[in-house]
Every structure is written in structure tokens, then in C-alpha cells.
Amino acid sequence: MSGTRNSLNSQTSTWRNWAGNVTARPVREVTPASPQELADAVRSAAEDNLTVKAVGTGHSFTALAATEGVLIRPDLLTGIREIDRTSMTVTVEAGTPLKRLNAALAREGLSLTNMGDIMEQTVAGATSTGTHGTGRDSASIAAQIKALELVTADGSLLHCSEKENPEVFAAARIGLGALGVVSAITLAVEPVFLLTAREEPMSFDKVTAEFDALVAENEHFEFYWFPHTGNCNTKRNNRSAGPAAPAGAVSGWIEDELLSNGVFQVACSVGRAFPAAIPAIAKVSSRALSARSYTDIPYKVFTSPRRVRFVEMEYALPREALVTALRELKAMVERSPLRVSFPVEVRTAPADDITLSTASGRDSAYIAVHMYRGTPYQSYFTAAERIMTAHGGRPHWGKVHTRDAAYLGEAYPRFGEFTALRDRLDPQRIFQNPYLRRVLGD
After folding, report:
1. Which of 304, 352, 399, 403 could lock 407 by a disulfide, CB 3.0 to 4.6 Å apart?
2. Which of 279, 342, 275 lies closest to 313, judged by CA?
3. Distance (Å, rounded) from C-alpha 96 to C-alpha 78?
4. What per-residue confidence (pLDDT) applies to 261?
5. Three-state SS for 35?
6. Do 168 and 248 form a contact (C-beta atoms < 8 A)?
7. 65 or 374: which leads in pLDDT
8. Helix axes 264-273 and 278-288, enclosed angle (nearest 10)
9. Are 37 and 77 in contact (CB under 8 A)?
10. What is the pLDDT of residues 225-234, one digit of tens each?
11. What is the pLDDT at residue 361?
């Protein structure tokens, strides 16, 4: 069993997530180097009556991965197993960081169709929590999964796809770590292509008035609204015949590093110390970014560095409810004493067929609210959540929210399908933790 207990010396260490708002002290940590070692670790934990949770890079803001039992670190479960150019798929080990996958695929002349705006997460961590970007026709990373390999509670290695164990496949693509530990994922890929990004400031009133048209006219549309202002920054990504025209080294650094990270970090720090200054700072920040356009391979357009740490809540709403809910959020901020230094992010996704996907069965729009790390966020998030739930919102599984199984059972028509599968695959609740108990029930 040496391969499954090779981190016993770190058993007293504390695990923290990226934002620092979740900590856990597991009994032991395990870093398996193969699916078999992973299966051994699960069986060993069950024998010791310990629960098991796998962690990625800790980019979830919820306690989804926290455990006082056995913590699985996937650091050695990395790399591409196979690229199949006939089926146009890539099979990748679960612990592979998205940034390494994206770079490796690009070297092979391949790309994912769509992705989120950061790529620090592991493949399994991103898909298991429903990480998504924005897309009129193309959905979350999990919706691009063609097959996956799962270690279940009895230590079995379960393969699933549309043809093999399809009922597991329907749920495990966004499995919340409740059905087992993912060991490998097969994703659809396509020949690498070029995207032209067009970033442009736009007023809140214009964006909301033209939202439906902006979504319909662009393959990938998103925008940020700066609270305490009527200003937004929009981004439209569309496929391009080229030629490639990357953001200039200097202008790109000014936009992505200085304004979006460096100056923004300072502005957030000042706002945390002097909340009354935040509205004035927001007006300056929202005007600092100028219009620009650039063309590059997908991951260099979809993703951006995120060095300013924050806490986030995000809800998926029926797409037709987006504009009303966002206007209600703006009105709430304006009439409240809240001081919000972070912009609100809005994205879209088409309906998919994944049991607990936030876009399951309905075209969706996402509203994400953020607060700078170390700033009290509860009042803002509580008020925002009240608006989101009034519109039938579904919380992102990896972001702060207060919903429980009673609410989620109503929000997801297939909720019972997921919990029944969990009863079958994990009757002893080897993969249970307090967060899953709250959102899925016992």
C-alpha cells in the first residue's frame, strides 16, 4: 500500500482553497500515481471508515472538496493518455491542469471548442463543478466530455459514455465528487482555429437593451458591469479566417496585467481600507479599459490571468430572465449602503443534457458577483441571492451560495435521478462531506 499512503508525513497539514475562505484538516493525504493506486486509496479509506475527497487547485469557493478523512491530491495523475484523430477526442488524466492541456493540444494543432476564462484548474475539478465560459451554441467544458473513468466507493474502475453506463455518464460529467473520484476524462476536440476578440466599453442601458441581439449575433458574448456606475465592458469572440493578430506585447500587458491585475489590485486594496472611496474608484476603473481587437488561438482569447484574489457567487438564470434580474441587482446596489469594488460578470450557455448542470434543460445566462478577498461579502451576496432565487436561479456548484437540497430539488427537474444514482454508487457515503449533505441531502 506504499503507493496509496505516500503522503502520511503531511497528515497534520491544513488544506486551503485559492480564495482562503475554506480550510480542512484531513487525517491523511494521498497522491496516487495511477488509477489502480487511486482505487487502492479509496478501498483503504473505506476499511478505515474514513471519507474521501479529491482536490484540484482549490479554485472552488465552496467546501465541495473539504474533508476530515482522506484527501486525494491528483498531482501525479496528469498528462495526455491518447489523442484519437479519427474520433477527434483527447483522453487526459484527471489531475492535468487546463493550462497544460490547452498548450499541449495547441502543439498538436487541436483545441477545445469552448472554455472558461481561467485555466488554473485541473480538468476533473473544472468539469465536476460545472466550470463554463460563454457561448451562444457551445456549452460548458463538461458538455464536451465524451467518456470518463470513475473510481467508485467499492474501489471499482467504472467506464462510462453515451453507450457504456449511460445513466452514470448523464450525471458524472458534473458529479460534484459525490459519485466517485474521476481518474480520466475523454474530451471532444477540433482542429485549432482562430478567434477574433472585440472588447468595447458600452453603457449598462445599451447592453441590457440590446442583450438578446448581442447574444444572437456573436458566438461568444460576455460583459462586465461596474457597480456604482452605468458603465460596462463587453467582449465578443467570433471565429476568424485570420490572419492571427495577437494583442501587442505592450498594449496586452497594459490591459491584462497592469489595468486588470496590477492597478486593480491597488484599487481593491484602497477600497477595502476606505469603502467610501469605492464609487469614485469604480468610475475611474470602468473608464480605464479602452476598445481593442485581437485575433489568436482559442485559449489565448478565452482565458485571462486572474491574480487579484476574490470571493464569488454565481447564479444561472433562464436566459429570458437575465435583463430583469440584472436591473434589479443594479437598483439594489444603488439604494443600499453597499460598496462593491468588483465588476459583475454576465455570460450565457445553451441548454445541455447533464443531470445537474446549471444549464440542464434550459438556455441560461449567468450573473456572477464578486468581492475582494478580505472584504465582508455576506450582505451583498445575500441581497444578490434573493434576486437570483426569485427568478429560479441555480447556484454554481463551486461558488458561494446558501441553497440546500429542498431548494435544489425544485430547481433541477432531474435532481432525484442524481440522488438515486448516488444511493446506488455510494450507499455508505464514502464521498460525503457537509457541503454535499446540504446540497444533496442525506
Report:
1. 403
2. 342
3. 4
4. 56
5. helix
6. no
7. 65
8. 170
9. no
10. 999 999 999 9
11. 98
- Sign of the CA dihedral 291, 297, 301, 305? negative
Residue 254 clears pLDDT 60, i.e. is over it: no
Give the separation between CA 78 and CA 61, rounded to whole angstroms.
23
Contact 37, 93 (CB under 8 A): no
Task: Name the residue among 369, 316, 327, 362 with its Cα closest to residue 344.
Answer: 369
**What's the whole-number mean pLDDT along residues 73-93?**
97
Query: Has residue 7 got a pLDDT over 70?
Result: no
**Residue 376: cis peptide before it, omega within 30 degrees of 0:** no
Residue 267 binned pLDDT confidence (cut-offs 50, 70, 90): confident
- Of 431, 392, 385, 387, the C-alpha closest to 412 is 392
Q: How would DSSP label each residue in 317-371?
A: EEGGGHHHHHHHHHHHHHHSS----SPEEEEEE--B--TT-TTBTS-EEEEEEEE
pLDDT given for residue 3 in this prediction = 40
Least confident range from 88-92, 114-118, 262-266, 359-363: namely 262-266
Measure CA 224 to chain center.
Answer: 17
Residue 7 corresponds to which cell in the numbers above? 503522503
Which set of grid coordinates corresponds to residue 73?
Answer: 491530491
